[in-house]
Design a protein that fits this description.
This protein has 348 residues and is an alpha/beta fold. The protein has 2 domains: 180 residues, Rossmann fold (3-Layer(aba) Sandwich); 142 residues, Phosphofructokinase domain (Rossmann fold), CATH 3.40.50. The strands form 5 sheets. It has a 5-stranded mixed beta sheet, sandwiched between helices. Strands 7-8-6-13 form a 4-stranded parallel beta sheet, with helices on both faces. It has a two-stranded antiparallel ribbon with strand order 9-10. The longest helix has 22 residues. Bound molecules: 6-O-phosphono-beta-D-fructofuranose. 6-O-phosphono-beta-D-fructofuranose binds next to loops.
Length: 348
């Protein structure tokens, strides 16, 4: 059995655990071979790959990033994209391809499967917003990093009697914000799923300060919509730049700065900003993410061997279960109102 593997989209702690597991399972259990395509779909389009033996994946389990490199290349936007992928498949005599990625990479995988290609998906994103799996690997690591940052910001905010606005990742959903905010004891958490007004934000902070607390921590997801002054109940994304990537995504960032300015103006409390950015994606994965990535990788190799194509591995409770890869892009997995209600208990 000859298996190809690629990592697409933003990098994520735990990718190397998946790669290692696919290689070890394919070689150890099935006596097969594995090749790794470089830089996501670009590697398979261009025929850029390396052989992955047991030695090539030795020592990578605790390493962040991906030894294969990654990109946001979209096969659908490339000239003769699907045909070129098919040509590489045939030329290298692949029995299957394991595509590790988020909604975009899995969307391409599902599209290629519908065109007759033998693809298995592995869901990845620190944002944890992929439909069809309870968790994606990388999310737990990001929550740990954000929680540690919130803990550290507490002591400096308290020493200076300041409000600190912490911006975390989360393009469409507020999973990192809610989980790290609850774990870190945030005084307010703002997420894309729940619209807010500047008046509400200032009221929460004033209420807290009126009971003798002279500092506050506000956690905001980068994809939360900043309220528009004119129209109640509507907001806009805050962008670093208008330009979109190959999947049509804008670059988010900067909501914390706007919010901090409005809070200082509205409450009179000195306010500072910390944007956690790529620190949430870099570095070594937690034990949870290493184990989840390893379990995903083992099952992905098993699915290729069993010729169960068009499937994606998923976590359901504590079990790893194959589901249709097309589920991944049917809708986003949003923060449920019950969890946000838990967070809300501690606002103000
Ligand atoms: O999809 C994960 C994510 O971390 C988002 O939260 C963020 O908006 C995006 O990636 C940014 O990634 P990049 O700058 O690499 O495109």
């Amino acid at each position: 059995m000859k298996v190809g593997i690629l990592t697409g989209g933003g990098d994520c702690p735990g990718l190397n655990a998946v790669i290692r597991a696919v290689v070890r399972r394919t070689i150890g259990k099935y006596g097969g071979e594995v090749i790794g395509f470089k830089y996501g779909w670009a590697g398979i389009l261009e025929g850029n790959y390396q052989t992955l033996g047991i030695n090539e994946v030795s020592g990578i389990l605790p390493r962040g990033g991906t030894i294969l490199g990654t990109s946001r290349t979209n096969v659908g936007r490339e000239e003769r994209g699907v045909e070129r992928v098919k040509e590489t498949f045939e030329r290298l005599e692949l029995d299957g391809l394991v595509a590790i990625g988020g909604e975009d990479t899995l969307g391409v995988g599902a599209q290629l499967y519908s065109e007759g290609l033998r693809v298995v998906g592995v869901p990845k994103t620190i944002d944890n917003d992929i439909n069809g799996t309870d968790f994606t690997f990388g999310f737990d690591t990001a929550v740990h990093i954000a929680t540690e940052a919130i803990d550290r910001l507490h002591t400096t905010a308290e020493s200076h009697n300041r409000v600190v606005v912490v911006e975390v990742m989360g393009r469409h959903t507020g999973w990192i914000a809610v989980k790290s905010g609850i774990a870190g004891g945030a005084d307010l958490i703002l997420i894309p799923e729940v619209p807010f007004s500047i008046d509400e934000v200032c009221d929460v902070i004033r209420k807290r300060h009126s009971r003798g607390k002279n500092f506050s921590i506000v956690v905001v997801a980068e994809g939360a919509e900043y309220p528009m002054e004119q129209e109640a109940d509507s907001g806009e994304l805050v962008l670093v730049e208008q330009e979109t990537d190959a999947f049509g995504h804008v670059r988010l960032g900067g909501i914390a700065n706007k919010l901090a300015h409005a809070i200082e103006h509205g409450t009179g409390f000195e306010t500072r900003v910390t944007v956690l950015g790529y620190t949430q994606r870099g570095g070594t994965p937690t034990a949870f993410d290493r184990v989840l990535g390893t379990r995903f990788g083992v099952m992905a190799a098993d699915l290729v061997h069993a010729e169960q194509f068009g499937k994606m591995v998923s976590l359901q409770g504590d079990r790893i279960v194959p589901v249709e890869m097309s589920h991944a892009t049917e809708c986003l997995k949003r923060v449920d109102s019950e969890l946000y209600e838990v967070a809300r208990t501690f606002f103000g």
